[in-house]
Queue: 2 jobs
Job 1
Amino acid sequence: MASGLTNGFARVAQWTSRQAGRASTFIVASALVIGWAALGPLYGWSDTWQLIVNTVSSVVTFFMVFLIQNTQHRDTQAIQLKLDELLRVNEAARDALINLEDLNEEELVALKATFKHLRAARLRGDSI
């Protein structure tokens, strides 16, 4: 049951992400905002008139946060797997780099300093 729910959510998130990124979606959203603004004088710039756009934008933003997070997480996982595969098949690559995303902040800072040192040595022409 949970797997079906997760898969269903992933499909909805991917579809919504594709639709939200289209130019036509932006045009429709822009037209709605322009239409809402044009109705302002008709409704006397009332609180209800303002509440409509505030409520709609808040609800859309609330749901989009979850959908964007889901698609971004899936994309990041896919990129990590692709990079892991490239490291795995490259004889010269360090196997320790395959799970960098699991390191804590201090370990990442130390590794970054190591690579900074290696880069500086290479720029100086030192053999590494």
Note: The mean pLDDT is 89.
Job 2
Amino acid sequence: MRLIDAYEAKAVIKDLRKTIAREIPGATLDTVMGLINCYIDAQPTVDAEPLVHGEWVSVDRCIYIMCSACGARFCDDHDPWPYCPKCGAEMDEKTAAG
């Protein structure tokens, strides 16, 4: 798998579509798709941050939950999120209060 900037690719593909329509009148769908695929294959990859895992830790007798990855605290008045809204860590499970 290669990670590319989808926003950049979409913008350039939009311009490429206009160029093809202007410069290759009557181009077939196969021609257009072939050129778009070549463009996508030529895109540089982008750096991605590794996926961080954490778990919800009960704090202060279950009044708050805390992300084990970044320490952010949130009210525990609902089911916890599957990820931390602050750091994006994927939560494996909620730790029960002891």
Note: The mean pLDDT is 77.
